[in-house]
Design brief:
The protein is an alpha+beta fold. 20% of the residues lie in helices and 48% in strands. It has a domain of 68 residues. A 5-stranded antiparallel beta sheet has the order 1-5-4-3-2.
Length: 102
């Protein structure tokens, strides 16, 4: 549990808890065309997996943080269920990049 907390603190993954969300922070993640499977196949390892029950039964978000050397990525899956049946799924990955100067 300590590893999850320190990683989340280091990268500001707990929005609002560590520091307020802003455009500058969000610009650190660039959408990627690769899948979670692609990253694992190319040698990335899991650093943390965070699970959030957005609503008790109907929506669940899982965020995977992976690392390879000094490169980090996050991949997320958001599942929406109605009466136990999946009726919505959002999947995507982002790479950590240096924020653009503003």
């Amino acid at each position: 549990m300590r590893k999850l907390f320190s990683l989340a603190t280091a990268f500001g993954l707990i929005s609002g808890s560590v520091f307020p969300a802003s455009a500058e922070i969000q610009n650190q993640w660039k959408p990627a065309d690769k899948t979670l499977s692609d990253y694992v196949a190319s040698g990335y390892v899991f650093e943390a997996i965070l699970l959030d029950q957005i609503t008790p039964v109907s929506m669940q978000a899982t965020v995977y943080y992976l690392r390879k050397d000094n490169m980090f990525v996050r991949c997320s899956e958001t599942v929406k269920r109605v009466s136990g049946v999946i009726n919505g799924l959002a999947i995507g990955c982002d790479e950590l990049v240096k924020p653009a100067a503003q």
